[in-house]
Amino acid sequence: MAPPRNRRPGSSRRAQYGLFFGYVVAVGGVLFALLLLLVSIVDPRGFAAIKGAAMDVTTPVSSAGRSVLRGITDFGTGIGDYFRAGSQNAELRARLQTAEAQAVQAEAQRLDNQRLRQMLQLRETATDEIAVGRIVSSSFDSPRRFAILAVGGSSGVRIGQPVRAPEGLIGRVLLAGRHSAQVLLIVDPSSTVPVRLVRDGTPAMAVGRGDGTLELRTLEVGVNPFRRGDMLVTSGVGGIYPPGIPVAQVIGIQGEVTIARPLATPARVDYALVQPLYEPAVVPRSDGGAAEPAAEAQ
N or C, which terminus of the chain has less Cβ within 10 Å? Predict the structure, then answer.
């Protein structure tokens, strides 16, 4: 027959000894506590000495335990700091992206304000202004170069009138609607602008090349008078463009061919100013009277 699984403490001698020693330790602890209490009452100095000895014995153990606890705490703190640092880095990156976007927006606003100030200065100096409008589009994917201006016939814009920006000449009005106008850019192959060299007044013709540049052609056969970096302005010849408008700068010379880059392009210009024809064509009157300026094409 198998012995029972749960046996009473009295059925095992080892259990009885264990229970006995437990009682002995408990009674000994009580007696030791009473002894310490009695010593503290009878001999306080002796009790203080006992406390000091106990503190000396327990200090290394407490220090070791405290070091272990501190190490565990520091380890946990380090892990927490690591994860907090990761979240802080993500937050800092987000703030940096926001700051960069704000900086770009501020720079764009600064450039817009600068262009508007330049346009206001131009309007103050150009007393013959017809209208000012925003350039809403321009063509760059074909040899023909046009731009659309957001002003038209209702603002006094007519075919043939020159269009310029603070930086320089843009072109002339090719078509004029009620509220918009098509501008033939000076870089179009069909555009020819009479210019003169600022350095010595040499006359020339600036012909569009269809690739965003101009070719300068002198009116006299001989040595090429242009130098790299030379500036050119309108000469007023032909009666369309007023004299003195900046046009282009020489960027390259290849034998007799001189290439110049326009100073004003729709890609870098937001607003443009329309001016009247410098010298409208004069035609005789049908009745044989004095000649009169030709009416501008509608």
Answer: N
